[in-house]
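Kindly inspect this today.
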Amino acid sequence: MSKAGRCCQSCLHYSFDYETPKTLVIPSLGVGCVFRFTQVLILAYVVGYVCIVQKAYQELDSVISTVTTKVKGFTFTNTSELDQHFWDVADYVIPPQGDHYFFVLTNLIVTPNQTQSRCPEHSNPSTICSSDSDCMEGRSDPRGSGIQTGLCVNHSDAVRTCEVLSWCPLEDDTNLPEQAVLAAAENFTVLIKNSVTYPKFNFHRRNIAPQINSSYLKRCVFNPVTDPDCPIFRLKDMVSMAGEDFQTMAVKGGVLGIVIDWSCDLDLWGGKCEPKYSFRRLDNKDPDEVAIGYNFRFAKYYETPDATETRTLIKAYGIRFDIIVFGTAGKFSIVPTIVNLGAALSFLSLLPAVSDWFMLTCTGKKDYYSKHKVTYLGEDPETESIAMDTCYGTQ
């Protein structure tokens, strides 16, 4: 056979030779320890993490939730703007019904007896004037208080500003009370009614347990240690559990999250699926930042005996409670069990590769082990040797 033929035959052998596993028993404590240690790690991962922690044998479903709230409490105030005033739920819960939230008024700035008329604009660099020519009739600044009439009028003894058509007298929102007007709101309570559904498992649950009756609801207040099943929460307690002080937060308002976790393991008895409550402040409270807190304006309109439309403008500060419901439910299913267990156990195929690498790289007898690890069986050892020498030019 020619040199080229023998070389071609040798290449065909390398392309189409069949490899079969070969079993070697290595009496090495080090290699054996590496093999068993890796085996224990993989089994611990499969059993401990995949099965116990991740519960990969379960089929999962996301929660569908609905929430309603009912606030209770009343207080009495006596201020120069409102005189003596009794506050109940209809006064301080705005709006009466919210979608997964409710707002409780705690502080306010009142501008009574406003009518649509003309008055001096607030004093600032863009509104101060010295004559009518400094004011433009019909000009409307979205950040101002009204539409300029084109006249320059006295704002005070020392300052003149452009006159505007607006609800007068204008609101002065710089005079915010340093202590919350409705400080007693800390003792108000709210009943949270939350119903959840896991449609995939046809599972329904309420945060009001079946054993709770109306007499219990009249006297209970939520406490995570002594009374965790009560759905009635005191506002001060919720703010405190979020790490905040109610009276401090009540001055300029804020946003508090009521988080309800409905994560359930439905392989257990269904009665163990219970809500877990937590609370956290959601808005920025840094006093060095601008526009902190939470506020908005609303008005109460009425008509005087002379048919003049009049309103009382209220800039309301308070705490908005956002109710955030989340959760997943899991239940045993054969399909994810087979898929996840098969994927996890496939890591066992790495054991020979890891042990071989350690044996052929890190042991003192690596050359000896390498010699016996791979054995090439040719059809004719002598002919194969000549072909190899010819192919590589050693003959």
Notes: The chain has a mean pLDDT of 86. The CA atoms of residues 208 and 231 lie 6 Å apart. Residues 29-53 form the longest helix (25 residues).
